[in-house]
Fold this sequence. Notes:
Structural class: alpha+beta
Radius of gyration: 26 Å
Helix content: 10-25%
CATH topology of the largest domain: Beta-galactosidase, Chain A, domain 5
Oligomer: single chain
Largest sheet: 10 strands, antiparallel
CATH superfamily of the largest domain: alpha-galactosidase from lactobacil brevis
Bound molecules: (2R,3S,4R,5S)-2-(hydroxymethyl)piperidine-3,4,5-triol
Number of helices: 13
CATH class of the largest domain: Mainly Beta
Number of domains: 3
Amino acid sequence: MPSIAHDPEHRLWVLSGPGSSYVLHLDDAHRLRGLHWGPRLTLDQAVSLLNYPAPGRRSFEDPADGTLDLDTAGAMRYAHAGVQVRFPDGVRDLEPRLIDHAREDGELVLLFADRHYPLTIETHYRLRTGTDVLERHLVLRHTGGAADGPITVVRADSATWVLPRLRDYRLSQVRGQWSAETRLARTALPYGETVTTSRQGTTGHQYNPWVMIDDGHSTEEHGPVWSCALGWSGGWKLTAQRLPTERVTVSAGFGHDPITRELVPGEELVTPVCSGAYTEGGFGAASRLWHRYVRDHVLTHPDELRPVLYNSWEATGYDIDVTGQIELAEKAAALGVELFVMDDGWFGARTHDAAGLGDWAPNPERFPDGLTPLVDRVHDLGMGFGLWVEPEMVNPDSDLYRAHPDWVLHHPHRRRTEHRNQLVLNLARPDVAAWLHGRLDELVTKNAVDFLKWDMNRPFTEAGWPDAEGDPDRLWTDHVHALYTLLDRLRADHPDLRIESCSSGGGRLDLGILARTDQVWASDNTDAVDRVKIQHGFSQLYPAGVMGAWVTDSPNPYTGRSVPLDFRFHVAMTGVLGIGGDLNHWADGELARAAELVAAYKAVRHLVQLGEQYRLTGPGETTAVQYLASDGQETVVIALRHARHFGHRDPALPLRALDPAVRYRDTATGSVHHGAVLLTHGLPLDLDADDHASTLVHLVREPA
Ligand code: DGJ
């Protein structure tokens, strides 16, 4: 059970998970300090931290810089401040004082009020059972009356995490682009403020809202790691700050420069959750902690196995009709596919990407009898039916836009920049959100849709709302809240509906969207060689059970690279397997092998999707991932090797977390291995000499 201990005399709180503690201390000036974030401490032990000498006086700055958990702007603090406001009279300094605190059901709430101005700030800390992940957010409330005028919130980071003093600091994060998302970058943390941000209105392909910090010496398997992640699917900003005093903080929240948010009297601003964790056991242990947290506390259907899906996009593009889709569905079913997803091009005038977006009715020429004949056939074949939608968007060449040109984000005297020939609907408008809910609800109900692929293919531009009541900049946050409400309503009304988050691949991947969707399309890049890197970065925070991965054609339509079928499958089998190739052009031998590989995946997917993941090597010449059942009874290893050099055979692969005293049987060959030998000398690999060789080995524990 998580514990929250309080020492009133010393004004100290200790929040402890199974293996870590986070300690807060309110000093005499009512500054809330992050005193400890690391191994678990008792209250007594935490109190002893107060005996450490306070940092010495400094002439040109407050020594509290870099130590504050509630990091408000003001006085002689010149470092990044997590909370910044502007009062109507121009004052920007905050002087919060603690006026109340409460502990209940694993949550601690500290209530601060400004000494003069009508603003309160609540800091919330929640520990959930069985995890060291601490969830934090703020609530800012304008407590004044009509005469007080609005308070401008310039920055409201959900959390500022205070790192302990380390011998050095290293930052791990992912960076990317369209078709090259979530590639891991591990670099020394420079002095100053290292900012990752999205100004795009969505999570973005460029950075993902999490970081990990270590002292530069942690490895995949050893050493302490501090990490935090923001659960928000709109614009965000994360500031990792290393001061010349060697104090480091990570502060993260929604919103981005230069967007501000006005709070009117009586209004409150609730920030999204920023979660953080201290772990020992290297980056692998940190990832496994986050994977478990996502399964236990974020996802809504965590124990379900995700079906093997087929997606039509790379096969048919916009060239869609009922006959062609039924033909593909029959071929997919023969491979063992369980969910058939018809992608873009089925509705309105959407025969290319310049028309029809927003007109969510089947194209009458392509589907003269609506979607029912296809849906029925798919269901008869024993598969679920999935449909692509891009609800937040509109093509100017659409009936929707012709009827409601004012429904898009726009400024009166500015052009409406099109990207992929489309504009963004202003979901912050209640009438737009209500219309969209009606259309989607009807679509799902009428067509017995089991799965929506929810796409979002362009960032915000000219983000204006000319006839908004109040502050139009609220659209940046209200759009995301409206999206969340829409997803929540659809899922509540259609409990069997499952949803995939997609944004031109992996542009909307975060803990906020994962609370409302079941899987994420990781990248439009389906080249298995590139995918290894993208998926390695994805796995740092997010579990394999939410990572959509397809097997597509060779040569790959995007990169032109040719890769063997087994390798393509094995790469996709490290996540939620899907098939996205043009099955009409696969040879009989390929179809037969594909069916075998789908069956092999089904035999181990409970391990991949729900097990504990160990990244054994890579991503390099060889990448190997092991997934272990939570009861330790079985494990699967997928090994991928790009090229063999100098004729040397592939070295055996030491496995992790097995019982050294027991023996494990290879379900394919019947060979039996000793756990102790697998852990030390490794699993012998029998890979082809050809490039892009791969294997999957499923081991089950032999009875004693
Ligand atoms: C972008 C997605 O990432 C693709 O998978 C596909 O659905 C296209 N959009 C369709 O327009």
